């Protein structure tokens, strides 16, 4: 039996981070992995509390105290199997989940002042070890049911649902507009947070399990939604939300003012060795430029840290609220500051100006926090007379994402959407307004966390399974 409850005498210790100047030179992940004794030691700090708030606040409700105990006892294979029982991508969640806002932020010993158990780092260690030791088993499809499912979107929600549905014995086809599966895991999140082989090995496992991927496939161009419905017994819409939120200021159409996802996708493609003309000609390359990123979420953090690695002359992040009220991970802010990013708090763009059609300057209003808004957060308002100019050859808009106009793009006006453009679903079945067409992930809930997309994929696979079984039974009775 492991020696647990050692949080008083054993200090919290995360895996060592590479020095800021060294890690800013490449796109490798910034933290090393635990050695086995360190992982066991840190897992042994868990208090094994009666009400595990870490699990309660995990969208997947992972069995965190149980696999921490197994890790502390040196029973790593069992720890992996338990971790894998609730998550299709535990090593990815261990890398990119904002643990400081979820499991670790709600750890009981964090409340006691002793520092949370390093749950994410242990989770990453467990599954990386499982891959190395060959414990990650192939995806084995269930007995063939004679029914097929189409999944539109190869991001975390679509991939998770596809895995579960294949396990139930369905023929599964995944359609995605990109030339590689993974969605934001592949093209949105930089390698210093999630190295791409970690994603690709998951995709290859699904392909080896018989899931058919149709990459470079756009619904509305290569097939209509009705045509896909005719091909399959059920469909899942898991496209995510990719439309960049606009910013209504002068100079928005200048060269050098770009959307965050365009910028990050170009960088990630370069990491794959792709030819990226917009990067090569400098349009989506920060090298030698004064960069200003607008926004305070995790996407903004990805952009500023990418710009540092591309060799920007200077990198500033403008956020309209203060540090305490920003939505991005505080760990990511700290990493960015270590790497040389300057944060300009309580600041928002008033306009962009330039010469010969290209941006050279951001005019920024100073802000102050006024009365609380409907969400309870103090609303930012302009501080009169306190604007300033800052040099900017590259302005990256990282203000979040909205849904694309799927009914129009797909020629499917009967597909019900909300006033925000997200797809309407039944709250219990997750079925859309179209019979046999389901939706899950960000295209339903709006831009959110990867771990929520994985949870949604797991949930929708269960309701689709019930629907397809009922459909098969009805067909058998009718025959």
TrEMBL record:
Superkingdom of the source? Bacteria
Question: Which residues belong to any copy of the FAD/NAD(P)-binding domain?
Answer: 149-457
InterPro entries reported for this sequence: DPD_II, FAD/NAD-bd_sf, FAD/NAD-binding_dom, GltD-like, Helical_ferredxn
Instruction: Provide this UniProt record's keywords sorted from A to Z.
Output: 4Fe-4S, Iron, Iron-sulfur, Metal-binding, Oxidoreductase
Q: Protein transport among the record's keywords?
A: no
A single GO molecular-function term is: glutamate synthase (NADH) activity
**TM stretches of this protein:** none
SUPFAM superfamilies xrefs: alpha-helical ferredoxin, Nucleotide-binding domain
Residue ranges of the Dihydroprymidine dehydrogenase domain? 23-134
Q: EC number(s) on record?
A: 1.4.1.13, 1.4.1.14
- A Pfam family that this protein carries is Pyr_redox_2
Q: Return the protein name.
A: Glutamate synthase (NADPH/NADH) small chain
């Amino acid at each position: 039996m492991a020696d647990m409850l050692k949080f008083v005498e054993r200090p919290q210790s995360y895996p060592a981070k590479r020095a800021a100047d060294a890690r800013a030179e490449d796109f490798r992940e910034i933290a090393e992995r635990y050695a086995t004794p360190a992982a066991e030691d840190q897992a042994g700090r868990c208090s094994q509390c009666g009400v595990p708030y870490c699990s309660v606040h995990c969208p997947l409700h992972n069995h965190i105290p149980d696999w921490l105990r197994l890790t502390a006892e040196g029973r790593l294979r069992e720890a992996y199997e338990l971790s894998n029982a609730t998550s299709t991508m535990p090593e990815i969640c261990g890398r990119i989940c904002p643990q400081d806002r979820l499991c670790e932020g709600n750890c009981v010993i964090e409340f006691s002042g002793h520092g949370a158990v390093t749950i994410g780092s242990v989770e990453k260690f467990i599954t990386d070890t499982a891959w190395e030791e060959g414990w990650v088993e192939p995806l084995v499809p269930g007995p063939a049911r004679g029914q097929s499912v189409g999944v539109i979107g190869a991001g975390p929600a679509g991939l998770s649902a596809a895995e579960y549905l294949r396990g139930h014995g369905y023929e599964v086809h995944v359609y995605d507009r990109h030339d590689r599966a993974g969605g934001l895991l592949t093209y949105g999140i930089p390698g210093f947070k999630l190295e791409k082989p970690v994603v690709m090995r998951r995709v290859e496992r699904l392909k080896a399990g018989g899931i058919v991927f149709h990459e470079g496939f756009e619904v509305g161009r290569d097939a209509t939604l009705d045509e896909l419905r005719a091909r399959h017994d059920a469909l899942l819409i898991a496209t995510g939300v990719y439309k960049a939120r606009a910013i209504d200021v002068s100079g928005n159409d200048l060269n050098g003012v770009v959307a965050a996802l365009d910028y990050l996708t170009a960088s990630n493609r370069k990491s794959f060795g792709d030819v990226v003309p917009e990067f090569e000609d400098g349009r989506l390359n920060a090298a030698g430029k004064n960069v200003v990123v607008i926004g305070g979420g995790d996407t903004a953090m990805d952009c500023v840290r990418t710009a540092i690695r591309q060799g920007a002359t200077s990198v500033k992040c403008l956020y309209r609220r203060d540090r305490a009220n920003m939505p991005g991970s505080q760990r990511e802010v700290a990493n960015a500051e270590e790497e040389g990013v300057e944060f300009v708090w309580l600041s928002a763009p008033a306009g962009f100006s330039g010469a010969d059609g290209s941006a050279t300057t951001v005019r920024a209003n100073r802000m102050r926090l006024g009365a609380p808004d409907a969400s309870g957060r103090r609303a930012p308002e302009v501080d009169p007379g306190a604007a300033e100019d800052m040099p900017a050859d590259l302005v990256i808009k990282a203000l979040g994402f909205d849904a694309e106009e799927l009914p129009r793009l797909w020629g499917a006006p009967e597909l019900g959407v909300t006033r925000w453009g997200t797809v309407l679903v039944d709250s219990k079945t997750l079925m859309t307004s179209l019979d046999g067409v389901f939706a899950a992930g960000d295209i339903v809930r709006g831009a959110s966390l990867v771990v929520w997309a994985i949870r949604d994929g797991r949930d929708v696979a269960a309701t689709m399974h019930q629907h397809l079984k009922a459909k098969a039974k009805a067909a058998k009775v009718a025959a």
